[in-house]
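User: I'm writing a short report section on ligand binding and want a predicted complex to refer to. Could you take this sequence and zinc ion and write out the structure as tokens? A short remark afterwards would be nice.
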Amino acid sequence: MKFAFHGSPKDSCMATFAQRLAAAMQEAGHESSEAVPGVGLVFSHVDEDHVRPFRRHAQATYIIALLRLPEVPADFLRAAYPYMIRSLGNLMIAVVGPEHEEETYFVTLERGYYRIAPQRDPTRHMQEVVRRLTPLATSHLIIDNIFDPDLEPDLWQGNEATVELERAGHVLDAWNLLPAPFPMQEILSPEDFRHVQRLYQIGGLSYGNLSQRHDRHRYWMSASGVNKAHLHDVGQEVLMVKDFDDSQKAMRLSVPSEVKPRRVSVDAIEHFMIYREHPDVGAIIHVHAWMEGIPSTDVNYPCGTIELATSVANLVRQAPDPSRAVIGLRNHGMTITGRSLDDIMERVDGKILPQVPMS
Ligand SMILES: [Zn+2]
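Assistant: Sure. The structure tokens for the complex follow:
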């Protein structure tokens, strides 16, 4: 992969970090580039006083924002996360603490943040940083949607399944498992907000999604960025997923002919793989929370990537009963399968831990 740096390091500590990072990237076989256009990975130095968003022209460019915080903030995520959004990063690496005692943290769009274990040897530490960032930077998003106006008219107002989805959304909301979307509009200019929407194809970072099988091939799923406590309008808040178009790397959706549709949740590819493989799975819920003793993915691939979907599908397959599996997504949340939404709710009631362990 070709990589480049953008902007200037904030202090000598960050300058050293960037040099070591470049060296470790090259050692791992990646090619350094002076010019930014056309490279697959850009490390972009954040200047807190003038956060200048890095505007890429291609979705395929992965941006890692580099943030320097000389002091450890009391609320790390609250202090660091807005800088990632404002610099339009896919991931952020924060170098935190006084020079020579600094620690390295990763911050993800899913609001995960974790420390990369320190090592006495800076070269080994940087090898670990590169090892942890590479799978994220090389993963592939499946976020394009193709809308076919072919939904049967008797489903335009929904059916029993969409009523159940709506009810389950209310329950998750009452359990406080659906935190409000991050208020990106408040920290971004209207222009940058539109850019983020185009870039990530998201209407707002809201967390969690739910789906319910319709027939052998199709399932209903919550839309992207909508309030999951209000899943009602077909084509807008709930969508019928009918297929994955492998050649176009896009989800195919059936929508009512007269509705301007919203996009389906970015995790549609993950649910798709599970429903197709396991006919007994009737419903799937994904929340940013945890449960004691669950198996977990190794790599915290981003939401909506084929790599995340594949690693979750692999763990579902290995579960004693794939139609009743609880799978941890490292540093992110869980995906739970069930015969029905009620089946899932009954099994997890009282067992959900609001805090996802970070490592
Ligand atoms: Zn998620």
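A remark for your report: The pocket of zinc ion is lined by residues 110, 207, 286, 288, 303, 332-333 (CB under 6 Å). The first strand starts at residue 2 and ends at 6.
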